[in-house]
Each structure stands twice: as structure tokens, then as C-alpha cells.
């Protein structure tokens, strides 16, 4: 449904600075009726791709087709299939829920019974029943986001793009938003592409695409991505993880990586984790706060693939390569 081929985009350099390449030869397909999460550390090119898909930015080169329509050659036909939930609010806080929905519906040619039927349907799944007359500015952040989603879905788009729609919501509101979105996505077999920094959200997706520095590093189902790490990993936390990580790697003769206060050993030897835990405790008992064996989460996969966490640009990380080099 969304076909991206060899897409590149460079922002022109200003005041003598060189141009900045934000996307490099990106090729990605999003199947009709699927839910894809686009993830990547800060500056990886997510917003640039999002802006290109929305028609807000012309790419330097490459091709994008939406439902078979070329976004550059036939933008109106491509955009007619799409609706977009932006990160910043695009509803009028001074108007009521009903007024916002009516305004949007009318802009898209809906009126009378057809508009009322679509509005009532949206109210049923969005948790906004009983709030029709409330001004959007008086709603909680979570409900205001549901108005945004309800508004975008009034027109039955075949493709829905969402740019970090849950940012700033508390966990319960985040969950309610995602539950509503995934239910309606499945019911309508809608194609959804959503950027996110929150890996628990990616568990709900059919596919996760991971970008870094403008390159697509991975594009697969959550289960397949988790299988890339394959097995359990050992996670040690320490007050001074930065100092401990290289000592741990050298003592154990294993590759370790550090992310904040966590030191990870992804390749546990065939003898299993118990001898490793024994060795760590006997050498470093006083230095460590906790030690745990756990299955890799999607966030672990993300850190493994990109070498960084999602929301912080490249934390002071000791890569496996640098620890190995120090040995
Ligand atoms: N208007 C612009 N002019 C120049 N460079 C830009 C512009 N917008 C983005 N960039 C650069 O392009 C690269 C990709 O940025 P982009 O905003 O697409 O990343 P992102 O993954 O959305 O990051 P974030 O998660 O922080 O929003 C970065 O190096 C960024 O500095």
C-alpha cells in the first residue's frame, strides 16, 4: 500500500555548512492492512520521512507510491487515501468535540445523516461518549488525542500516518489510545504507519522498521526481530557502570555493552548463565546493584541494532567492539 523506493533527502547546508543527509536510498514497503511502527534514535530521519509522506517536504530523489499513486506525480490521488495524526494538536481547543468532528467532516464533504452516523460510530470506539458538548480544551490529554484520532478516521482513510501520537500521555492513556487504534485498524483493515519512541507500543505492530542516520537497519515482525538476539541475555546494573563495564568484559573475556547504568552480556556461553553469575559475584559483588537473566525485549533489539537507546542520542556506550579491542 505504501511503496518507498530509493528515497534520499538532504537538507541544504546554511552559512557555508555542508548539506545534511537525512535519508539515504531508503526502500521500504508497507503492506495493505498492516500496522507498521517506524522507530529510530533522535535524528535518524523519521520526521523527514513522515514529512515526505505527508507531502510537506519534497525528497531530493526517489519515489513514493501510496495505493499505486505516485506521491510526487499525482499527489492529490495519493493524499485522498491518507489521513494524518500529527504530534502537535490539530483540533480546535475552543470548539466542542462535536464541533471539531463536524468541521472536519464538512471539509471532506460529509453532512447531515451521513456525518451524524460517522460521528456516532467514532464516539462508540473512542471513549468520547457523553463528551460531545465538551470543549476540547477541557478534556484530558488522552481524550484530546482520541478526538484527534476520531477526526482523522471520520473520512475512512485507507492509510493512516501517525507521528508519535502518544507522546506526553500517561501509560493508561497511552494504552487506551493504542487499544482504540489497533481495534479500528484491524476492523477496517487500514494501513497504519506510526513513528514511536516507546517499544512496548511496537509489540502491537505487524512490522517494525528501524532507522539510524538515514539508513534502514531492520524491517521485520517484532517476533523475528527478537529472534535476532536469539537467546537470553545477562543484565548487570551498577552505580558506576561506566567504570565496571570494561573490567567486567576483561575479567570474563566476553563482549559487553553498556547503556546508562546497565551492562549487557548478549552472548552467554554454552555453559549457561549460572557459572557467569558466580564469576561476576565473586569478582564484583561490591560493585554491582543487581544481576538478571532475561529474554530480549524489543528495546534490547533496538539497542543491539542501533547501538543507542530510542530517546537519547548515543549515550556513553561501551560497544562490544571497543571492549574487545581493549582486551
Ligand atoms: N529543517 C532541517 N534543516 C536541516 N537539517 C535538518 C532539518 N530537519 C532535520 N534535519 C536533520 O536531518 C536529520 C534527520 O532529522 P529528523 O528530524 O528527520 O530525525 P528524527 O528521527 O525525526 O529525530 P527526532 O526523533 O529527534 O524527531 C538530522 O540530522 C537533523 O538534524
UniProtKB/TrEMBL annotation:
Has UniProt tagged this entry with the keyword Amino-acid biosynthesis?
Answer: no
Recorded GO MF terms: ATP binding; ATP hydrolysis activity
User: Which intervals hold domain ABC transporter?
Assistant: 2-238
What is this enzyme's EC?
A: 3.6.3.25
Report the top EC class in one word.
Answer: hydrolase
Task: Please name the SMART domains in this protein's record.
Answer: AAA
Tell me which domain of life the UniProt entry assigns to the organism this sequence originates from.
Bacteria
Q: Does the keyword ATP-binding apply?
A: yes
* Keywords, sorted A to Z: ATP-binding, Hydrolase, Nucleotide-binding, Transport
The UniProt entry, under PANTHER family, shows: ABC TRANSPORTER, LINEARMYCIN RESISTANCE ATP-BINDING PROTEIN LNRL
Q: What is this protein's name? A: ABC transporter component
- Its source organism is Rhodospirillum rubrum (strain ATCC 11170 / ATH 1.1.1 / DSM 467 / LMG 4362 / NCIMB 8255 / S1)
Upper taxonomic lineage: Bacteria, Pseudomonadati, Pseudomonadota, Alphaproteobacteria, Rhodospirillales
